[in-house]
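Try this one yourself first.
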């Protein structure tokens, strides 16, 4: 069990960067919390209602996992195709001045206003040989894209587990639901805390922000009839 747990975590870390992992975890937790808060008040009057609620939460996050994994692959394809188009245009440019201008256009948002025009030109000239040798990206779906999609789907499905566990220990459905909701809120805080510590931000403040953001988004969903 421990080995499979570490294998799952390693797989997710290998194919999703920190930003994607935390973003997906927060979104998945919010989806489960929103569903249980919205549907829980009417669905847990009996044992069959609990089963319906849990299956609904699983179905909700499964659907979200499929949608978000598809969007992840689409985003990767878009990024690579834009890179391919940029590099292809560079290599087909009629003269070096147009090439330098195109490279400068990419660097300007990063360098301005601290770096002057002459320095930017020298920098573009220095990196030009490297840019011209860069391997053109694959414009098609890759195995890494597929693995990233699987990792996203796994995060979304696994996020349902903390919502389910209280129902295994509490016989009173409404108590189990409150514990389930509290657990998800705490996990939102922990996810924000991890984000803060990994990015140099105040961890406790980041945790509070993630928790409050999640609750606010759930509140919006409920208010809009989500």
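Now uncover the answer:
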């Amino acid at each position: 069990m421990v080995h499979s747990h570490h294998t799952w975590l390693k797989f997710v870390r290998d194919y999703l960067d920190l930003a994607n992992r935390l973003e997906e975890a927060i979104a998945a937790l919010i989806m489960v919390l929103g569903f249980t808060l919205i549907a829980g008040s009417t669905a847990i009057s009996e044992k069959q209602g609990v089963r319906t609620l849990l299956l609904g939460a699983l179905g909700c996050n499964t659907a979200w996992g499929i949608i978000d994994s598809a969007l992840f692959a689409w985003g990767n394809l878009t990024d690579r195709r834009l890179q391919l188009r940029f590099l292809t245009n560079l290599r087909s440019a009629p003269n070096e001045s147009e090439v330098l201008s195109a490279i400068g256009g990419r660097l300007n948002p990063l360098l301005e206003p601290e770096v002057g025009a002459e320095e930017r030109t020298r920098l573009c000239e220095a990196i030009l040989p490297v840019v011209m040798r860069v391997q053109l990206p694959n414009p098609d779906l890759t195995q890494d894209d597929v693995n990233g999609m699987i990792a996203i789907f796994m995060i979304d499905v696994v996020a349902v587990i903390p919502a389910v566990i209280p129902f295994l220990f509490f016989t009173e459905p409404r108590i189990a639901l409150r514990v389930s909701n509290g657990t998800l809120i705490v996990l939102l805080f922990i996810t924000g805390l991890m984000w803060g510590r990994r990015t140099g931000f105040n961890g406790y403040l980041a945790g509070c922000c993630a928790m409050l953001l999640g609750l606010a988004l759930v509140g919006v969903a409920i208010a809009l009839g989500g």
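Discussion: The two ends are 37 Å apart (CA to CA). The first helix runs from residue 2 to 15.
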